Amino acid sequence: MTKIVAIAGSPSHPSRTYGIVEYALNLLAEKGFETDIISVRDLPSEDLILGRYDSPALEPAKVLIQAASGLIIATPVYKAAYTGVLKSFLDLLPPKFLSGKVILPIATGGTIAHLLSIDYTLKPVLSELGAEYLLNGVYVVDQQIQRQEDGSFLFDEEIQQRLQKSIQDLETSHKDYLTHFSISFDRMALAIRLRVEDMDSVPDPLPPTHLPWDKVYPCESGGNLVPTTRRGCPIPSFLILGYWNTVTIF
Prior knowledge:
- By secondary structure, this protein is an alpha/beta fold.
- About 35% of the residues lie in helices and about 20% in strands.
- The protein is built from seven helices and ten strands.
- The chain is globular, with a radius of gyration of 20 Å.
């Protein structure tokens, strides 16, 4: 079953941001997705503050992100940007950790003036982490979310419609992205077999061929592990297409 993981970046609980995350994940569960939530506020504060990249306490959250093919990243807006606790967590993720995932960003704020905070503050750091497929974000003003006596939240009809559309976009984009991944990966495999220098020369439509991954080996280049062929020739970067981190090659 396809998994979507939400990262809730609010330092408080319950919160409007967390309520939106729960609503979005319920919509995805109804569509057959497996879902999970990482609440950043529940992670050890000392690890986040001191930047402990190798903390065992952070591993479960990293494993959830690795296993997900899609992410929802939600945050309240403080001082025109995402929360510090969310940034502290994102700073501890390895380079290109979000590569190969469809991402829906969501933000809540007290005023419409911070509408562009998703595009100008959150998306750049997600791109730095390798995110290639960032959907249009959803920005919600606090007044559009009403806290009920039982602790639940009631959303304005407009917000419900926007969230439902965004979840539909996430589902559609997720399917399109996986299809693109499959086609691109087959093109890469064929290009390696044919030892071509230009992807445009790879035949399309593709014949039924797959790269024998047991004949692909990692080697160290500039301190990084890069895929190589049996002969030790590095595979050209234009063939990797940004998806290599999603494939186990050894």
